[in-house]
Amino acid sequence: MKTGSDSPSRSRSSSALLRLAQNGDTRALSSLFRRQQLALRRWARGRLPQWARNAVDTNDLVQEALAHTFRRIHVFQDRGHGALQAYLREAVRNRIRDEIRRLGRQPTREVLEDVVEDRSASPFDQVADSEVMRRYKEKLLTLTEEEQQLVVGRIEMGYTYEQLMLATGRATVEATRMAVRRAVLKLARKMAEP
User: Fold this and answer.
1) What's this model's pTM, rounded to 2 decimal places?
2) Residues 78 and 31 occupy one common structural domain
3) Torsion over CA: 123, 126, 128, 129 (sign)
4) Which member of 28, 136, 147, 185 lies 3.0 to 4.6 Å from 20 by CB, making a disulfide possible if both were Cys?
5) Averaged confidence pLDDT in the chain
6) Same domain, 93 and 19
7) Which of 46, 42, 44, 45 is CA-nearest to residue 125?
């Protein structure tokens, strides 16, 4: 193993670090891990649907994907520039899909709030990943027209329960809240199906 000034540095390419790590250089493996972790965290940010974030942290999924991959780094075949990052992104996508399926099988006990506190971006805007968006649209169409109206109104448009009550002709805000909750949970279960 190399020591002192021969330690992996920021100036080494990921390919060079990968070769060193595959040959047993633990410092190269650590440097590669840190480098890939930063890039993956930036890429993965916002890819986990908002409704699943209370149960699992995206950074944990990134960490798990990295750990799993780097435990088997000796068998990874480098197929050129960006191959490792592409492989790791797919591993994170798979972890996110697994978590969505797992959470979809568990009952939710969370109460939906009347006011959306986070003004940074709507849950709809955060579901930017094309695969998740495609699946969302596909599964949204399997809901009844009224359920679609409730989901789109609340999640995509950010309507209050009172606005939805008026738009859907419901008798009370509480009845509207329960109908929205049922529609969102139904959609979540459908999205978690294989």
Assistant:
1) 0.43
2) yes
3) negative
4) 28
5) 77
6) yes
7) 46
